[in-house]
Amino acid sequence: MASLRQVVFNQSLTSNSMKPTVLAILIGVVAIGGTIWYSGRSTVAPVADAGNVSVTDGKQVIEIGVKGGYSPKVSTAKANMPTVLRMTTNGTFDCSSGVTIPSLGIRQTLPPSGNTDIEVPAQKAGTTLDGVCVMGMYNFAVNFK
Length: 145
Ligand SMILES: [Cu+2]
Known about the structure:
The protein is of the alpha+beta class. It has two domains: 1-41; 53-144, Immunoglobulin-like. 28% of the residues lie in helices and 37% in strands. It contains one helix and ten strands, in the order αββββββββββ. The strands form two sheets. Strands 1, 2, 3, 5 and 8 form a five-stranded mixed beta sheet that branches. The chain has a five-stranded mixed beta sheet with strand order 4-10-9-6-7, with no helix packed on it. It is globular and about 65 Å long. It binds copper (II) ion. Copper (II) ion is lined by residues 95-96, 133, 135, 137-138.
């Protein structure tokens, strides 16, 4: 059994040494929280052209990588043009291979690897197409300008 003096000593030692630990945890929480907040903001804010949209023979192709989500998450495309969403899987065995675009009634199961073209009718300027996996976990957006 510890004497009273030892208990008091141990407690004061513990509380003194805990202060920097608590401070470090607080700093860590603020830093991680700030990073999550910042990265969350950057996906919502308009992003620069991801360079994944090309036009060939009057047809627009939007390339989107599919594996554990969609990349890029936001694409900028031209309005009033027949469009193809080229979904590229590469060893994709997660639910992002089941892609839906609810506003167009599109539901497509992608092979584990390869390109799958999804035809999209010409969209008006200002339209945003939202794509989401079958489970509603992963999403992407295409803004038409
Ligand atoms: Cu999912």
